[in-house]
Automatic annotation (TrEMBL):
Single Gene Ontology BP annotation: proteolysis
Official protein name in the record: ATP-dependent Clp protease proteolytic subunit
Keywords for this protein: Hydrolase, Protease
Coiled coil: none
Source organism of the structure: Winogradskyella luteola
Domain of life: Bacteria
Length: 385
């Protein structure tokens, strides 16, 4: 079964959650991974279209699986309304069931794993603006809180007062056994076999008491595997490409990449003065060269602008570069030379020193200025920038 990613939730350029879907043998399947954020009109249209098509094809039941730290109460309400169009919905939770995601699970039959963690808390809202706007936001928060209490009470057969008692001190965490005993889920089935980066990030983001390590089988995966449409587009194939054509294109890409790599190795000139290995990138500056050139810079034998030139020299002929750098004498500060030309020395010369002059020649004096004359220190530091 191939899932199609419909919505990707991002924060600061990083994907923090997603919703994918598929239809198989008359059942609609959905995956909710990570954070649930508000989506754009275009994303919402994709999800609604997918559900409409599933219903038209005769899919009366839906299965939702995944792991989520929750997120937007409004986006979760939208999901609930969309999923309630199916006659029966079952949710299968993996690593995490927290915050707004628990509102969704409280409306459907829900199973978890034996190492699932769950968390409920009083819904949170943001308030800003004038007094009237803040009062309006407060009323909204009260309405949402009542809605969550009712949903939890109905799912667990508890009273709303009992729900309040659970979250009165903030986040209320439960392991799988307590989630089942308290009535927040309907059954425990197996255990989470592999924790993904999304699982670990989500657990850490919402303050879970136990945060597992990324499972070995998923540890080296920096991003989700492409869905079929993305893969077809990446390989430059037609939209109706068969599995055999996809496999052939992927194989050809690997062969082309290998040929390119071998051709590049043959064309690259051999470097001198450093140990060569079969897989070494010949253009890379070795640690030995970097250490040599860095020491020369630290000893003030040349400026930062000249580092690249000395690295190239040392890469081409290490011993010759070492001899040349050892023979260099430290470059004096221009301000120091000017002071000497003007016959100034000692404190008279220091009066014209820059921040870097103090840092290089008398850092203790710089610390003294910071303690006794912080305004001067700030001015010198600002001039440096």
């Amino acid at each position: 079964m191939i899932y199609k990613k419909l919505i990707a939730f991002s924060e600061k350029g990083k994907e923090v959650g997603s919703i994918s879907a598929a239809v198989d043998k008359g059942v609609a399947y959905f995956k909710i991974i990570g954070r649930i954020w508000s989506w754009s009109a275009e994303d919402g249209s994709k999800l609604r279209t997918q559900i409409d098509e599933a219903l038209k094809s005769g899919a009366k039941n839906a299965v939702i699986e995944g792991s989520s730290e929750g997120g937007s109460v409004f986006a979760t309400n939208d999901l609930l309304a969309l999923f309630q169009q199916f006659d029966e919905v079952k949710i299968k939770v993996h690593a995490l069931m927290a915050s707004a995601f628990t509102y969704l699970t409280s409306h459907f039959h829900t199973t978890i794993k034996s190492n699932t963690q769950g968390m409920i808390h009083m819904p949170m809202i943001g308030a800003r603006g004038n007094i009237k706007e803040i009062k309006s936001s407060l009323k909204l928060g009260e309405n949402i809180t009542k809605d969550y209490k009712k949903a939890y009470a109905k799912k667990t057969s508890k009273t709303e007062a009992e729900i309040e008692a659970l979250w009165k001190d903030g986040d209320y965490w439960m392991d799988a056994q307590e989630l089942l005993a308290e009535g927040f889920v309907d059954a425990i089935e197996g255990e989470v076999e592999s924790f993904t980066e999304f699982d670990v990030d989500s657990l850490a983001a919402c303050g879970a008491p136990i945060v597992p390590e990324v499972s070995a089988k998923t540890k080296n995966k920096s991003k989700l595997i492409m869905d079929r449409e993305e893969l077809i587009a990446y390989l430059g194939l037609d939209a109706d490409a068969t599995d055999e054509q996809i496999a052939e294109a992927k194989s050809k890409m690997k062969i082309d990449a290998l040929k390119y790599r071998e051709d590049s190795k043959e064309k690259k000139p051999k470097s001198k003065g450093k140990k060569e290995t079969e897989d070494e990138d010949e253009t890379e500056v070795s640690a030995e060269v970097k250490e040599l050139v860095a020491k020369g810079l630290k000893d003030k034998k040349y400026t930062a602008k000249e580092v690249s030139a000395y690295e190239k020299l040392a890469t081409a002929d290490f011993e010759a570069a070492k001899t040349a750098i050892d023979a260099l004498t430290p470059k004096p500060k221009l301000s120091k030379e000017l002071n000497q030309e003007n016959g100034e020395d000692g404190e008279g010369a220091k009066a014209k020193w820059t921040f870097d002059d103090y840092l290089d020649n008398d850092p203790e004096a710089l610390e003294k200025i910071l303690a006794e004359d912080p305004e001067r220190y700030k001015a010198m530091e600002a001039a440096r920038k």
